[in-house]
Amino acid sequence: MKKIIGAIVVLIPIVFLAACGTSGGILGAGENELKLAHNQSLDHPVHKSLAEFGRLVEEKSDGEISVNIYANGQLGSEREAIELTQTGAVDLAKVSASALESFESDYSIFSVPYVFEDYQQFEEAMSNKEVTDRLYLQTEEIGFRALTYYNAGERNLYTKNREVKDVSDMNGLKVRVQPSQTSVGMIEAFGGVPTSMAYGEVYTALQAGVIDAAENNETALVNNNHGEVAKYYMYTEHQIVPDMLIMNSARFDRFSDEEQEIIMEAAEESTIYHEDVWEQTIKENTEIAKNEMNVQFVEVDKDSFIDSVQEMHKEFAESEKTGEIYDLLKGAIE
């Protein structure tokens, strides 16, 4: 009996994925219904922009193609969403560029601190077709391609009870980082102590003093209530890591040229739509954090932070894996 039960437990996820990957499977997808997975809440600006993408696809295709969105991580973590997209179990996924690092080294470029010194430089790079073609199509052989990106803001440092004015104030600071080796190296270069943990654990870790700080955009203060326990928000602006909308390569290729154009147009237009939604959300969240959570917003000596990571830039520029994308991106900015 134990052997039988064990076999059933092993088979359940296999059957689930197989069913997801077929038309009309347990996710209920028809031939022209696209399944899109992401891990944000329904009130997050990225979800709103993905909903706009779905609306545009349906409108432009006269209802022939629809997009069914699975939010809140219903289908798993970002890594699992990428893997499901690779296999075709889902058609599309919205994931952070940092989550794509372990699938394609080019995406690690976004985690290099101060590779963009401001948002204008980021926009210049992402409006360069040579840059986006390289990034979007580089992963086709491993099962997916990118359609567009969404602004996920500038990542800044926030602390429980320590004001940081320049990089010297980072010494010994325990900082939660994303599961990215580049982000770990960044905090070490700043003089802090990187601590990798799940995002959902950050609130209690700050509250209990397990970590002293975290880093993210302003939405974290309000949407995840981090402003209740973190009272200093520093404008370090150390990373600009976009969210990426990816699609299963084989599924994209099965559409006609006209249908592919519809999907690409809808993706690009949803990115433009997202800029306004994101800007308004950041303004609202900043005001709430200031006035209702008593978070102090602090300007820093950004040059001291930039100087501390120049060795990382040198390593990326000289690496066989990342040198080409680094030079391409820097060329687009210059």
From TrEMBL:
Task: Please tell me whether the keyword S-adenosyl-L-methionine is annotated for this protein.
Answer: no
User: What are the UniProt keywords, alphabetically?
Assistant: Signal
Q: Does the keyword Isomerase apply?
A: no
Pfam families xrefs: DctP
Q: Which PANTHER family match?
A: DICARBOXYLATE-BINDING PERIPLASMIC PROTEIN, PTHR33376
Record's protein name: TRAP transporter substrate-binding protein
Q: Which organism is it from?
A: Virgibacillus sediminis
